[in-house]
Amino acid sequence: MSVRQLVLFDAVARHGTLKRAAAEFGLSQPAATQSIAALQERSGLDLIERRGRQNVLTAVGEALRQRLPATLARLEQGLAELGAENPRRACWHITRAQLTLMADLRRLGTLEHVVAAMGAERRAALRAVRTLEAQVGSRLLESAGGQTELTGAGIILADRLGNMPDEIDMIVRDLSSLADGSRPALVVGVMPDPGTAGLDAVVLGHLEAGFDAQLVIVEGHLDDLVGRLILGKVDLIVGHVPDQDRKELTWRVLERSSFVVVARKQHPMAGRRGVPLHDLVGQTWLLGSAGSDRRKASDILFAGRAQPRCRLVTAAAPLMTRVLAGNDDLAMMTERELAARSQSLCAIAHDAPRVVVTIGWACRHDWVPTPAQADFISRLESAFGGA
């Protein structure tokens, strides 16, 4: 789908006839008809059907009409911020290739890096940006130190538009599911460590709400899930909030939870107060996987001391729970994890400072959720209660 085709489709949906939509952009009716036909052919979707003098949206076309305004509104807002006199008209002239190029410039930093990494022709890339400059009325590139970089206006526009190609692809994916009768998917990436206890209630509540979208839970660690999110392979991710954020993503904090030392309720240290750190070091431990927040918490706890003897390294909280329940080992869990296992485990009160982890969810910048996605997010925020 090209931006021009989507803008024209939106006009058809608003006016109800191809003739009026064509007139809005100074097109002949045959040219507008050809553009809509190309949109349907390239997407593989039947969006509009002719009934007498009216152009009526199909069920898939109606679904696109509902999704499209928010996407185009962000594009128009970015153009308006740069001073475009008629943002809707300016949208008409922007190509998908220009959107992709601006995203690559923002991601890679310079035109030279884009040419090298993406195999683009410098002259063609430069011409595409200059054409875009003429359309928006602002200078988007400047030369500095032998490199060609985005100007401040270019950065603003790239941040506004950078995710649009991926978002268009996601819209096509969802509409294709609707068209072929399969259920559209809501894909949620979840970090398994340090665990997101309470997510089960969110999932059950969402499923009981009866949305048609199939819920898919994908487990993975931060870097893997962030990569999938940026590429549009997952809709949102849930887990610990990283120290350094990606500009393409927006994180929203759900809660801040402390790590506590845990053991089975029959452990000799259970019930003691202010257990000295050297006593903890003398115990056998179950540790989180390398690089996980659970492992980082234990590393901070024992910083400057000899590491305790470790009997098991795992990212699986359920496995850790079963081992703890049958032995006098120690481990670290968040307060929420422990609350879900309070029948068999307890916290060991020690005199060292606690380590805090921030749990949140992330989406692509300026992402607009579907009703099913919005329901899942609402239940997620209610379950965790905010920070």
UniProtKB/TrEMBL annotation:
Record-linked PANTHER family: HTH-TYPE TRANSCRIPTIONAL ACTIVATOR BAUR (PTHR30126:SF98), HTH-TYPE TRANSCRIPTIONAL REGULATOR (PTHR30126)
Ranges of residues in domain HTH lysR-type: 1-58
UniProt organism field: Novosphingobium flavum
GO molecular function, one term: DNA-binding transcription factor activity
Family statement: Belongs to the LysR transcriptional regulatory family.
InterPro entries: LysR_HTH_N, LysR_subst-bd, WH-like_DNA-bd_sf, WH_DNA-bd_sf
Name of the protein: LysR family transcriptional regulator
DNA-binding keyword on record: yes
Keyword annotations of the record: DNA-binding, Transcription, Transcription regulation
Keyword Transcription: yes
